[in-house]
């Protein structure tokens, strides 16, 4: 057993949100330790693609993460519609006076840029450290972990959970709300006859939404389907997949020319009943995971890290030992987090419903949203910036 080590702030999880929180707190002069189970630079084969809003990109850049334009594929417009029904919404960056609404980026590129920023800002990171147990009390938290076959124990005034495991399950006063959609997300890179023109598509069907996100000259596909459909589509040849996509999307993109590697993952909603327990605060995937419709998950986590930084920045180092920090953070995030999680869940539930009267109401609502600029602009701003107005945004 190694001797105790104490830090004012310990963050568990060096994903994009955990690294972002560490960078922003380090910029304030706070003493931070970041713990991560993987080795540094170990996710170079991860093929995921992330969708970041304009606001999220500015937050990463403000935190010292060097993200040149050429690592992104920018999204200028989002086309939202429903199969076999009237009504559509076209969201545009021009409507809210932005150069773009968001962008896609390879997971690996974002993680590498964040790791480089950690090194540049000299953020202490203990890689290959698996956290086994956490404990919290009214005045401190403790972390028991394994590193290089040795047990380490850290204590902290504040412990920030930023990983999506089960560490939060044993915390006092926290329950986990979950919902299994009994669906899979099928993801791949698709090349069509026509290029993406910086337009993303969200197409709702009775079997679940289909999203196409610009990725270089191609698209990243996120297709919600039943487990059986996902298994079948993984084995489809090019012509069969083209026929199915034409049925859902029409021929606006021309014929399908190429399919990249296909992967699937299960879809589940998971949200904590509260985001703190004494000296532990949960952010990002530790606080909530949601359906990928509308691509809000990571962006919500970025706003978690942003608000955490604002709350901690309002207290100097000598005053960090104050439990009002957690309450302030929870109050600041409640509206945005609950609204976004509820919105994405409602989208999936409503558009999966086959009732003709409900379908007509949905189509009418989409038509009104698409036709009235003030409504459309307000909705677009909320997707880009979130619904948190309690604090001044760093990036603006």
TrEMBL record:
Domain FAD-binding: from-to ranges: 8-314
Pathway where it operates: Cofactor biosynthesis; ubiquinone biosynthesis
Assigned keywords, A-Z: FAD, Flavoprotein, Membrane, Monooxygenase, Oxidoreductase, Transmembrane, Transmembrane helix
Cofactor list: FAD
A biological process from GO: ubiquinone biosynthetic process
Entry-linked InterPro entries: FAD-bd (IPR002938), FAD/NAD-bd_sf (IPR036188), UbiH/COQ6 (IPR010971), UbiH/COQ6_monooxygenase (IPR051205)
Protein family (similarity comment): Belongs to the UbiH/COQ6 family.
Pfam family, one: FAD_binding_3
GO MF terms held by the record: FAD binding; monooxygenase activity; oxidoreductase activity, acting on paired donors, with incorporation or reduction of molecular oxygen
Ranges that cross the membrane: 6-25
Listed name of the protein: 2-polyprenyl-6-methoxyphenol hydroxylase
Top-level division of the source organism's lineage: Bacteria
Native source organism of the sequence: Snodgrassella alvi
């Amino acid at each position: 057993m190694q001797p105790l080590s104490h830090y004012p702030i310990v963050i568990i999880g060096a994903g994009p949100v955990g690294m972002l929180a560490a960078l922003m707190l380090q910029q304030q002069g706070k003493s931070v330790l970041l713990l991560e189970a993987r080795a540094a630079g170990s996710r170079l084969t991860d093929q995921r693609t992330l969708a970041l809003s304009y606001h999220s990109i500015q937050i990463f850049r403000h935190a010292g993460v060097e993200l040149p334009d050429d690592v992104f594929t920018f999204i200028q417009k989002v086309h939202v519609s429903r199969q076999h029904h009237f009504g559509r919404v076209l969201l545009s960056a021009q409507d809210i006076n932005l150069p773009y609404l968001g962008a896609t980026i390879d997971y690996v590129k974002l993680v590498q840029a964040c790791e480089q920023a950690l090194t540049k800002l000299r953020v202490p990171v203990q890689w290959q450290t698996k956290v086994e147990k956490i404990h919290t009390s009214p005045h401190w938290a403790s972390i028991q972990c394994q590193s290089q076959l040795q047990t380490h124990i850290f204590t902290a005034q504040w412990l920030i959970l930023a990983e999506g495991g089960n560490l939060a399950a044993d915390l006092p006063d926290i329950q986990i709300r979950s919902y299994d959609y009994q669906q899979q997300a099928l993801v791949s890179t698709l090349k069509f006859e026509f290029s993406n023109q910086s337009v993303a598509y969200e197409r709702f069907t009775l079997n679940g939404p289909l999203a196409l996100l610009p990725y270089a000259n191609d698209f990243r596909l996120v297709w919600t389907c039943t487990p059986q459909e996902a298994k079948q589509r993984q084995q489809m040849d090019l012509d069969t997949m083209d026929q199915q996509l034409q049925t859902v999307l029409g021929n606006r993109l021309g014929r399908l020319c190429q399919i990249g590697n296909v992967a699937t993952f299960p879809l589940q909603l998971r949200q904590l009943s509260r985001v703190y327990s004494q000296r532990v605060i949960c952010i990002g995937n530790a606080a909530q995971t949601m359906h990928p419709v509308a691509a809000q998950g990571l962006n919500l986590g970025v706003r978690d890290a942003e608000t955490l930084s604002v709350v901690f920045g309002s207290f100097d180092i000598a005053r960090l030992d104050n439990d009002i920090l957690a309450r302030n953070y929870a109050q600041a995030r409640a509206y945005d987090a609950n609204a976004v999680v509820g919105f994405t869940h409602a989208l999936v539930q409503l558009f999966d419903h086959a009732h003709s009267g409900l379908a007509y109401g949905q189509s009418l609502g989409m038509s009104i949203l698409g036709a009235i600029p003030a409504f459309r602009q307000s909705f677009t701003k909320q997707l880009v910036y979130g619904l948190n107005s309690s604090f001044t945004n760093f990036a603006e």
